[in-house]
Design brief:
Radius of gyration: 17 Å
Strand content: 15-25%
Order of helices and strands: EHEHEHEHHEHHHEHHEHEH
Bound molecules: phosphoenolpyruvate
Number of helices: 12
Strand order of the largest sheet: 1-2-3-4-5-6-7-8
Shape: globular
Number of strands: 8
Largest sheet: 8 strands, parallel, barrel
Distance between the termini: 18 Å
Structural class: alpha/beta
Length: 250
């Protein structure tokens, strides 16, 4: 039985004061069980999130990290430091990091190893462009991204990890993949995991859909067999909207 995840991705939004206000607004209102609510926030906001999550059913995610634990890497965030402060997940391979910061599959694989070594879990993002989808290349592109990202990761570690399928054409555009389109690709990803590992690992790994998920479409997406949750940008930033998403099954 895979526990669903509703994970916010605030991107480069909210300062520590705004974070505090958000957390005050959701206090006592998150589901106690049945759904894992996660917020992915900028590094400067993570301290507030980890304090809040000591008393509330909220898990925390960094939006990026480096693959070395420490050293002369000005401006980077250490996975060890994130782990020491109590962070649960790190989002890696988001299409914005691939597109604007040149993150490669190899970087993402190194980061996944560093995150797992530091006792956190990676949320590995993948997804195709509209051109790739229209050319019929979406499946091979996405499964290729996953194959590269998980190289050398044990079945046990992958089973605990999270994959997020985020078609680039649906991120921040208001265009959601239909629930059937999302289910179809998430199923393909699960089959790929089965072929790279085994049926048990494929059955355990949680695969999210991301791309304009909002309270109005979350139920339908979550009704699909292989979709284990949502990675949510825009609709995760307002407390009421995040609460509606996290409580989708009520
Ligand atoms: C995202 O940031 O990963 C995302 C899916 O954004 P949005 O929900 O705004 O499309």
């Amino acid at each position: 039985m895979r526990t669903p995840i509703i994970a916010g991705n605030w991107k480069m939004n909210k300062n520590p004061q705004e974070t505090q206000e958000f957390l005050e607004a959701i206090k006592g209102k998150l589901p106690e069980s049945g759904v894992e609510a996660v917020i992915g926030a900028p590094a400067i906001d993570l301290n507030a999130l980890t304090w809040f999550s000591k008393d509330e059913p909220l898990k925390t995610a960094a939006e990026n990290c480096y693959f070395e634990d420490a050293g002369a890497f000005t401006g980077e965030t250490s996975p060890k430091a994130l782990s020491d402060m109590g962070i649960d997940y790190v989002i890696i391979g988001h299409s914005e990091r691939r597109q604007y910061f040149g993150e490669t599959d190899e970087d993402i694989n190194k980061k996944a190893h560093a995150i797992l070594k530091n006792n956190m879990l990676p949320m590995i993002c993948c997804g195709e462009t509209l051109e790739q989808r229209e050319a019929g290349d979406a499946e091979s592109w996405v499964t290729g991204q996953i194959e590269n990202a998980v190289k050398g990761i044990s079945a046990e570690d992958l089973a605990k990890s999270v994959i997020a399928y985020e078609p680039i054409w649906a991120i921040g555009t208001g265009k959601t993949a239909t629930a059937d389109q999302a289910q179809e690709m998430v199923h393909v990803i699960r089959e790929k995991v089965a072929s790279l590992y085994d049926a048990d690992t494929a059955d355990k790994v949680r695969i999210l859909y991301g791309g304009s998920v909002k309270p109005a479409n979350v139920k339908e997406l979550m009704s699909k067999e292989d979709i284990d949750g949502g990675l949510v940008g825009g609709a995760s930033m307002d407390p009421e909207s995040f609460l509606a998403l996290a409580n989708f099954n009520k």
